[in-house]
Amino acid sequence: MDERLLFDKIANLRERVRLAAEKSQRAAGAIQVLAVSKTQPAEAIRAAWRGGLDQFGESYLQEALAKINELRDLPITWHFIGPIQSNKTRPIAEHFAWVHSVDRGKIAQRLNQHRPESLPPLQICLQVNISGESSKSGVSLDELPRLASEVLLLPRLQLRGLMAIPAPTRDPAQQRAAFATLRLAMAQLQPIAPAMDTLSMGMSDDLEAAIAEGATMLRVGSGIFGPRNR
Ligand SMILES: *Cc1c(COP(=O)(O)O)cnc(C)c1O
What we know:
Shape: globular
Order of helices and strands: HEHEHEHEHEHEHEHEH
Strand content: 15-25%
CATH class: Alpha Beta
Structural class: alpha/beta
CATH superfamily: Alanine racemase
Helix content: 40-55%
Distance between the termini: 16 Å
Number of helices: 9
Bound molecules: pyridoxal-5'-phosphate
Largest sheet: 8 strands, parallel
Oligomer: single chain
């Protein structure tokens, strides 16, 4: 993509965030943008960085590792947001600052075990299956408190919050209902996990609803880079 076009998309996104924050009487500065760069070439990430973005989210490990290496001259914060296989926890723990997709204790244990001592604790969001579909990844609302307690005991992990990918819908009321479920789930965990401060929710098509329900980190892919070709 042409760099001018990319910068236009970033400006447009910033304006959407600003307007939605204003509508909810929230500070736009309290809402971070995680640029989801899966399937995008390293050069597109470099251009987005020049456009002012410095947090990038990747879903496919091999592809991500190649880009992290290629872009190691830039002070980028890398987030892993894809499904995690238990035999891939070492490279994830070594090369990312954040993981948004922890949904079971075994994965948390392994990330903790593999997080290098030379790095700060790995920042963790628990992925919650708020739509209750059995095929989707994410811990169920019922099992969430137990998983949170488990993660809180792991010294190389820092529990920051919750993440969800709701079933897609164009109905703003349904979008908000799903995000409200995640917000309430985090509120219910406050007594055991008072330091949690991150609601990773909202993508290109539903970020206004997410902001209205308290999102602190939006994960935006196509809204920045245009359509993916995978
Ligand atoms: C791809 C992806 C996104 C970004 O989706 P867009 O609709 O392109 O903004 C956000 N979160 C996760 C977990 C993703 O896999």
